[in-house]
Amino acid sequence: MAIEYLGLSNINGPLVVLEGVQDAFFDEIVEFVVDGRTRKLGRIVEVDEDKALIQVFEGTENMSLGNTHTKLTGHPMEVKVSADMLGRTFNGIGQPIDGLGPIRSNDKRDVNGLPLNPVRREYPRNYIRTGISAIDGLTTLIRGQKLPIFSGNGLPHDQLAAQIVKQASLGDNSDEEFAIVFGAMGVKHDVAEFFRKTFEESGVSDHVCMFLNLANDPVVERLITPKVALTVAEYLAFECNMHILVILTDMTSFAEAMREVSSSRGEIPSRKGYPGYLYSELATIYERAGIVEGANGSVTQLPILTMPNDDITHPIPDLTGYITEGQIVLERNLHGQSIYPPISILPSLSRLMKDGIGKGYTREDHQALANQLFSSYAKVGEARNLASVIGEDELSKIDKQYLKFGEEFEKRYIGQGPAENRTIQETLDLGWELLRLLPREELDRIDTKLIEQYYPREAD
Predict the structure, then answer these.
(1) Spatial distance between the Cα atoms of 199 and 203, rounded to a whole number of angstroms
(2) Is the full-model pTM beyond 0.85?
C-alpha cells in the first residue's frame, strides 16, 4: 500500500521540500493532489536522509504547506509510447493537447532512456535530404548524426525548422519509413501556432509527432520535454524500424530553465551562471542520436539553439560544439541582405558528411564539388577584403570573377524560396553551373575526370 504524505515543509519557486519520507530515490516521480482537486506531477532531484527535494512540473501555483497531499510512485518519469503518436500533439511532459483523447497503449518507457552500448552502435551512413542546397550540398545531414543549427534572436530559424519538417525525406528512391519528432521548448503562442498551421497546411502532420512547451508553461517542464521527445523517437526507430529526425528548438530555453532551477536549489554557478553539469545534461540529450546494431531504424538530431548576442563562444553553443558532429550557422549579415536561409557557409560543417555521400548515396562528384565550392567561396572573402581597400575597379580580372561568383552563389545557391524543395541532383547541378563563372584552371579541388564529365561544355 502506497504511503500518502500530508502537507509540505517548504516551497521555493518550482521546488518543494517534503520531510519524513521513506524509501525515496533520486529521479522518482511524485504525484500531488492540491485542495483535493488539482493533480500535479513532480520529480525528486535530491534526497537527504528523510528529506526529499522535488521539482514540480506544472509549477507550485495554488500549493501551500497545508493543502497538498503527496504520494511517491516508486518509478522514474515514464511516457506511453505507440506508433499512433504520429500525427498527434502533446504538451511538454507527453500529455495530449489536441483534443483527440489519450494514447491507448500499455507500453511505457523511462524518459531517461537506457545507456547505449558503444559496441552496438553502427557508424552513420547515408543521408537525409532537406531540400535546402546549403545543407544538402555542403553540410549534408547523415542518418544517425547530431547536427545543431546555431542561430540568433530575430533570425528565421523557426521558418527554417518548419521548412525542414515539410521537405525532409530519405531521398527520391527510398522506400523506408520516415517520420519526424518535433520538440519545442519555451516558444510563444504565435510561434507554436505557426508550426501547427504550417504542418497541417502542407499535409505532413500525419508523420509528425509534436511536443509543445509554451513560454507561459512552467519552467521545469522544459527540462523534461527533450527527453520525452527522444524517448518516443527511440521507440519509433528501434522498435518500429523507422528513420526518425528529431528537431529540438530552442536548446537555449532548455539551458536557461536549468540555470533557473539550479539557482533555486542554491547550487554554485559555473560560467555565466549556468550549473557545472550543463555539459553532461546536454551530452545526455545529444548522445541519444545514432543507429543500433540489429535495428533497421535510426535517430537523427537537428537541435536548434539561439546564441545570446550572436556569441558562438557562449557556454551553450560552445559545449554543444564539443558533443555534436558539426554545426550549421545562420548569419545576420546574409539575413540583412534578404537571403533566405541565411546559412553562413564557411563556419558551417558536417563532420560525418564524407561517409554518407558520393557514389551509391548521392553522386560521385558530391564531395569534390563541395570542396571546390568551399574553396572558391573562401577566395570571395579575400577578394571582397581587397576591394574594400583598393576599390573594385583596381581588382584583377580573376578577382572580379570571384566577386561575381560570390554574389551569384549567395543569391542562387544559398538563397532559395521558403517553399522551394530541391532534389540532390538539382543542388549538385546548380553547383557546377555556378563554377562556370570561374576559369577552368581555378578548379583545383576536383579531379580532371570529374571536370571532363560535369563541367558544362559552354564554359569552354
Answers:
(1) 6
(2) yes
